[in-house]
Amino acid sequence: MTSSVAPATAVIPPVLAEVVRSGFVEGHHRGSLVVLAADGSVELALGDPSAPVFPRSSNKPMQAAAVLRAGLDLAGERLALAAASHSGEDFHLDLVRKMLAEYGISADELRTPPDLPLDPVAAEAYLATGHVRDRVTMNCSGKHTAMLAACELNGWDRAAYLDPGHPLQRLVHSVVEEAAGEPVAAVGTDGCGAPLMALSLTGLARAFRHFVLAAPGTAERRVADAMRAHPEYVAGTRRPDTWLMREVPGTLSKMGAEAVQAVALADGRALAFKIDDGAGRALGPVLARALRLMGVDAPVLDRIGHMPLLGGGDEVGEVRAAF
Length: 323
Known about the structure:
Layout: E1 15-21, E2 24-36, E3 42-46, E4 52-53, H1 60-69, H2 76-82, H3 90-102, H4 120-128, H5 141-154, H6 167-180, E5 187-189, E6 195-197, E7 199-200, H7 201-213, H8 219-229, H9 231-234, H10 240-247, E8 252-256, E9 260-264, E10 270-275, H11 283-293, H12 300-305, E11 307-311, E12 314-321
Antiparallel strand pairs: 1-2, 1-12, 2-3, 2-10, 4-7, 5-6, 8-9, 9-10, 11-12
Helix pairs in contact: 1-5, 1-6, 1-8, 2-5, 2-8, 3-5, 6-7, 7-8
């Protein structure tokens, strides 16, 4: 005799963006999104923002706060780079190398997979000079350098710094849970090799709200202030996170792979969303629309929200928000 168990009912994510070519809707990007009011209450929920996701690099502010709590004294551009998914522009790579030298760390100790610059323009220039994929060039090298420096400071095993049971990673785990106000739902491995903590989108938005509202001098506020003061080190000169933090004062913004985005405004309003299929091309249009619904009125939103589709080299359509 056999028995069957009905599958759990899943929320079908709504369409957050649609792909329009020559006036014809040829595709859709579904996802979930949450907006928090200034008091932290949920103001808008689309899809299932209570379901856990891997925030990917949107977790980096929490990881940077953990190295500060471990006693590492970082500030300014160095702290922003510790929370970065940098583009691999020359000024990013120069500072990573300086930090490695300052803490007596060899680039060979970085556990980042060798990679090219994240920014296409920087990647072309890098290859044109005869360079090859490198651990320093990988977009998470600033974070890994800070982690190794924290290990050196505390006498922790540098070779095992990415082990989920390592003292530093246990500290990261605690900071993530504290900021999000919820337990980590799962632990995986991020693209850079670091432990990755799953949260709900609501928890992720709460974490970003927590960082911008934290008391001055706390690890969380120090990270938020460094990121907002030096956004080009968090991302790059041609990246939406940089544009938004530069042009909307007080805003904290960090994207993550697989189309995750988290933002907090200076007054504590916050948002987080994930595009279900991981399509990064939907990030900008969805982000711009969500910020407009929150009352943000800034020219930079037109720049962030414009995602053209090309045909024969000409613009023939766009990816546009659908909510």
